Amino acid sequence: MAKEIGTLVIFGAGGDLTKRLLLPGLGQLVDSGRSEDFALLGVGQGAMSNAAWRSRVEKSFASSGATGATARALAAKSEYHRADVTSHADLEAILARCTGTPAFYFALPPRVTIAACRALAKVDLPDGTVFGLEKPFGTDLASAAALNRQLVKIIPEQQIHRVDHFLGKSTVLNLLGLRFANRILEPVWNSNNIESVEIVFDEQLGLEGRAGYYDRAGALVDMIQSHLLLVMALVAMEAPSSVGAEDLRGSMAQVLRATSVFGGRAADASRRARYTAGTVKGRKLPSYIREEGVDARNRTETLAEVVLSVNNWRWAGVPFTLRSGKALAAQRKEIIVTFKDVPHLPTGFAGMPGPAALRISLSPDDIRLDLNINGQGDPFTIDRVVLSTEFGAGELEPYGEVLSGMLSNDPTLSVRADEIEECWRIVEPVLAAWKRDAVTLDTYPAGSGGPASWRRSLR
User: Fold this and answer.
1) CATH 3.40.50.720 domain range(s) in the chain
2) Cβ-contact 128, 159 below 8 angstroms
3) DSSP-assigned states of every residue in 131-181
């Protein structure tokens, strides 16, 4: 039985991720009444008084609407500790300040997380200690595998929560409910009826001061290697026997093990680009290489696209295109399942609008299904209509959901070690092709739809 968490320790408490995402999610969770009472300890390298830290916590809580008495009480008693999390002695001092069973959240760059875990291996941690690790997990397949081996030397796998906020409960359950609770969809969810699947996460935001992390990662590692591959696994997996942690994660891992670059040639199945100066929604952006903190020698891409295949009976031959980019004209966060056209239309009908598609939006959460029907006025003309509805909203924002799982030690929404390693394995050939410049680094003006040469499908 899981032990009740007494203290949540946030490593990287002074960072942007903690302020912008982690603390607002925590405030929502606390105000919802779904968590037990615990203490909050922020840890960072920079100097910060307890008063300044508490003010930061209060403001972050308030940004998500968490202004209730429980959230205010947690903020008022929270503390900040300056420490080097890669130092064994400093970690001992942090542990001494914890009450009850600790949960450590690593809101840190991957290299610092790896070093901190090496130091934690020398610390005598209480039974039931829980880890929450922010993506990316490692910097490549070898480092991810090494980190996984290091982690299980410290605590059991079931107490390790690799956080991917794209797997917030509402996203997971919406996709599973849509697929497996509708007999009309599941029988056609295969290569006999589906032409292609696209998972797109295009943003209008630029770098937004994240050069320290993003310029070493790029769009492929930041979005496709983690978030979008896991969403793809939910779209493509076989029905799990339950939505329990092991059944669900096992089905996702099975899909990832079957996934590889489409056609086997990474240079042909991928493309990359980065933005130049332009205007997005009336806001002028400099060229990416002129952004503060960017090193042009890194040749970092801000737009990436990869075509993959899931090599199993259900999906053989179906291209899965994963794309993500920054500073684009339109915000698109959706899954597009395009069905094959009908094999024959009776003679006499005209105006067939082409293959239908099911669009599942990730923000806002809704679905739209194309339907071909007889046209108004002329019944011999086929017109396109769209059926649409919204998914039910989740009780919490994604970070609130993943923190809830971590603090209750429910790993359903966390990513298992083998899933992490499979995600790195899938993108490694692409990273290698890009490193040897086998794929051109294209450019596109900020505020455009991408490079002009990309108007033709990579498939």
Assistant:
1) 5-134
2) yes
3) EEEESP-SSSHHHHHHHHHHHHHHS-GGGEEEE-GGG-HHHHHHHHHHHHS
What does the angle CA 200 – CA 113 – CA 59 come to, to the nearest 5 degrees? 70
Tokens read off for 150: 């290091």
| CATH fit for domain 167-394+416-455, picks 1.25.40.10, 3.30.360.10, 3.30.160.20, 3.40.50.300 | 3.30.360.10
The Cα 379–Cα 156 span in angstroms is 64
- Kindly list the catalytic residues: 227
DSSP-based three-state secondary structure for 347: strand
- Where does 5-134 sit in CATH, by number? 3.40.50.720
Give the pairing of strands 39-44 and 5-11.
parallel
Contact 163, 132 (CB under 8 A): yes
Cβ atoms 150, 117 nearer than 8 A: yes
For residues 62 and 58, what is the distance between their CA atoms, to the nearest angstrom? 6
* 194-202/319-325 β-pairing: parallel
- In the chain, CATH 3.30.360.10 covers 167-394+416-455
Separation between Cα atoms, residue 190 and residue 314, nearest integer Å: 5
Q: CA of 22: how far to CAs of 14, 27, 63, 356, 387, in Å?
A: 11, 9, 11, 39, 36
Which token pair is 129?
Answer: 């200690």
The predicted model scores a pTM of 0.92
Distance between CA atoms of 60 and 24, rounded to whole angstroms?
A: 5
Task: From first to last of the 459 residues of the chain, give the pLDDT tens digit.
Answer: 356 899 999 999 998 889 999 999 999 999 988 777 899 999 999 999 999 999 999 999 999 898 889 999 999 999 999 999 999 999 999 999 999 999 999 999 888 998 999 999 999 999 999 999 988 888 899 999 999 999 999 999 999 999 887 777 677 778 888 999 999 999 999 999 999 999 999 999 999 888 888 999 999 999 999 899 999 999 999 999 998 889 999 999 999 999 999 999 999 999 999 999 999 999 999 999 999 999 999 999 999 999 999 999 999 999 999 999 999 999 999 999 999 998 888 888 887 788 899 999 987 788 999 988 887 878 888 888 999 998 877 778 888 888 998 999 888 888 999 999 999 999 999 999 999 999 999 999 999 999 999 988 887
Could you count the other beta carbons within 10 Å of the beta carbon of residue 185?
A: 14
Q: What is the DSSP string of 100-116?
A: SEEEEEE-S-HHHHHHH
